[in-house]
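Blinded run. Sample ID left blank on purpose so nobody reads anything into the name before looking at the predicted structure. Input follows.
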Amino acid sequence: MTSPVPPDATPQPSLITYPSSFPIKVMGVKVEGLVHAVTTIALAFDPNFDASTIELRESKGGKYLGVTVTITATSREQLDELYRTLSTHPMVKVVL
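Blinded prediction complete.
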């Protein structure tokens, strides 16, 4: 007897046309080094990343910092690995 294939096992077509500018919002506790860490990771996945395009936004209480980086997305695999790398960084709390 074979197991039925789960509906999510079939690769879904991408809604993104590659290459494409793709903003990613990263949130973490506002500490020294957060922006540098996010920038370093963005550069590892997009060597042409322009750090001058980074947008910063503090939380109302000033404890957290939102860092938006816009990279050139070239594939679903690149984005998946970038999200995984950012999400596992100890300074990062949320990646959107």
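Unblinding after everyone has recorded impressions. DSSP finds two helices and four strands in the chain.
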